[in-house]
Design brief:
about 325 residues; about 25% strand; Rossmann fold; binds S-adenosylmethionine; single chain
């Protein structure tokens, strides 16, 4: 990061508002997902501390064009986006390592309040602390919460009676089914305007390696959820008996990520027993890809008006500014 006039040396404290779901919710969600005919686990459970670290490693991979392309779009249009931010409190959903927001904070020194919302508590706190250390005068607030649930932002004193704007990068919106996107956008409409990163449709030859890289980091990221279930829920998944797969379903316009069982086997999870047939899959993520027009239509159905869309010259990725109608 280049030297900034907002650089400071002392480490200020980060305020944490913790709405993290209890372990019991994790257990019941996992058991529910594993008892479906298509075994499923929500992608939000992929992000424990190790999962967040592995996701950061994915962002550095040569095959994973998404992060560097979205960052290039942000750099190219930072001044224009800074105008849209105005002096509003900036609320980032699924903030992860809060790297992309740095580009906007450099371009928008008038922004004094940043709220990172993420489910991965420790990673979130570290990211907010790093922002406070690097951007003088910035109040970075950590909200550990599930953004698919109604946002508890009204309970946060720093946001009371303050205009806000939402930032949702990383194409995380692609993890939602299209019908869920509409419900989600309606929920986050409390934030006012939104800046949303959306991955564009493209060939399987680019998409599949992006989600299943040669070094196996994407595979380690997905399989880590089994390690997490073993550790936190007392299960006995044998990771050598499962493998990661990613396939582009062109008709549905989505990458389908799953963990496949390599043999017939039974896994114990506390008192429960879960059987897998050889080749049976546990779905970990869908990542939907949209054309600009397809995404704008979804946003309009949710009550948003597309204001502006920025893309890269190869049409790999899009960044949408949406306003409420
Ligand atoms: C794909 S990563 C994107 C990280 C970062 N925003 C970026 O663009 O590189 C998704 C982030 O959202 C968080 N996350 C996933 N599901 C979530 C949920 N339901 N509620 C809150 N955070 C969630 C993860 O912990 C992770 O940091």
């Amino acid at each position: 990061m280049t030297a900034s006039p907002r650089f400071q040396t002392q480490q200020p404290a980060v305020k944490l508002y913790d709405f993290h779901p209890p372990v019991e919710d994790f257990r019941s969600a996992v058991l529910r997902g594993l008892s479906q005919s298509q075994k499923t686990i929500s992608p939000k459970f992929l992000y424990d501390k190790r999962g967040s670290e592995l996701f950061d490693a994915i962002c550095e991979l040569p095959e994973y064009y998404l992060t560097r392309t979205e960052m290039a779009i942000l750099h190219a249009h930072a001044k224009e986006i800074a105008v849209a931010l105005d002096r509003r409190a900036l609320v980032e959903l699924g903030s992860g390592s809060s790297q992309k927001i740095r580009i906007l904070l450099h371009a928008a020194p008038q922004v004094q309040t940043y709220v990172g919302v993420d489910i991965s508590r420790q990673h979130l706190q570290e990211a907010c602390a790093a922002l406070m250390a690097d951007f003088e005068g910035l109040d970075a607030i950590a909200v550990c919460a599930d953004y698919t649930q109604p946002l508890p932002l009204a309970t946060i004193p720093e946001l009371r009676d303050r205009p806000t704007i939402g930032f949702f990068p990383g194409s995380s919106i692609g993890n939602l089914e299209p019908a869920e996107v509409i419900a989600f956008l309606k929920t986050v409409a409390v934030l006012g305007d939104l800046i949303v990163g959306v991955d564009l449709k493209k060939s399987a030859a680019i998409l599949e390696p992006a989600y299943d890289d040669a070094q196996g980091v994407s595979a380690a990221f997905a399989l880590n959820v089994l390690t997490r279930i073993n550790r936190e829920l007392g299960a006995n998944f044998d990771l050598t008996q499962f493998e990661y797969r990613a396939h582009y379903n062109e008709k549905a316009g989505r990458i389908e990520m799953a963990i496949a069982s390599l043999c017939d086997q039974t896994v114990r999870l506390g008192d429960a027993e879960i059987s897998f047939k050889a080749g049976e899959t546990l779905r970990t993520e869908h990542s939907y890809k949209y054309t600009v027009n397809e995404f704008q239509l979804l946003a309009m159905e949710a009550g948003f008006q597309p204001v502006q869309v920025w893309t890269d010259k190869h049409q790999l990725f899009s960044l949408h500014h949406l306003k409420q109608m």
